[in-house]
## 1
Amino acid sequence: QVRLVESGGGLVQPGGSLRLSCAASGSILSINVMGWYRQAPGKQPELVATITSSNSTNYADSVKGRFTISRDNAKKMVFLQMNSLKPEDTGVYYCHVEGEPELDAWGQGTLVTVSS
């Protein structure tokens, strides 16, 4: 049983910053890809950022230059530093990991609200 626990969401004013964290626990041999997805109200889920085991990163165009994804392999954690937040960044942010054995897990989500 693999569990992902996210933290760090909340209410922030436009232009502000938040740092999301996600910790994985359970029967995990290795984690290949870690990532963050989000779902805005009334919209489909979308990829925000991913990071591989070799620290190769990928970002949605809408967050490039503002968000930074990182990981701590020893602690099985992934982070998302979000700067210069905009109202359109509002949504539920989900952590996702892929790895071994047959690991494909999602967190419960953490709400980010960007509003004045």
Note: The two ends are 40 Å apart (CA to CA).
## 2
Amino acid sequence: QVQLVESGGGLVQAGGSLRLSCTASGRTSSNYVPGWFRQAPGKEREFVASITWSDGSVLYASSVKDRFTIFRDSAKKLVYLQMNSLKPEDTAVYYCAARLMGTANFGSWGRGTQVTVSS
């Protein structure tokens, strides 16, 4: 089991930037795929981005591509989500999650961090 803890959320004006961090501990390995999801009030949780730990390949939701960047620090077991050109519709609770390569289910989740973008 992998334990995940997010940090870095907050309040920012539209057009601004934030960087979220996710610290992983426990049974991490090169075969895991951490990612970010978000859930806005009254909406379902949605996928934002993921990164394959072993080779760094990334995947983004179309709504954040070209604005958000996911990257990792292997030595520190940290996964980051750099969010630029933020929009009010990016307001949500952001969750760090992880799955194993070859599986579709993200089985490990953090508690989330609030991101609020004001117009």
Note: The two ends are 39 Å apart (CA to CA).
## 3
Amino acid sequence: QGQLVESGGGLVQPGGSLRLSCAASESTWRIVAMGWFRQATGKNRELVATIRSDGTTTYADSLKGRFTISGDNANTVYLQMNSLKPEDTAVYYCYATKTMSTSQYTDWGQGTQVTVSS
């Protein structure tokens, strides 16, 4: 399995912005999708956004217009978060779904804390 290195979390005031990054280590497995989930205290983990190898993206309906996911050719994915709200406070987990032949698995990052508070 590979490694995912996350960065960019922290404390921000309501209305502010943060940019999360997630870099996947080199692997013989091909990445087919990368993205972010988040988990707030006492709540289930929920999908934030996904970007696939063909460039298509998916967002949680509640986050459309405020969050933008993007990627580069170096197996790195970014999550630009604007107009942050206190309810966006959560641990954000990066993931990468990889495939080789007929096999597939998902790597997870260790999570980065995002706190939106005044």
Note: The CA atoms of residues 88 and 116 lie 7 Å apart.
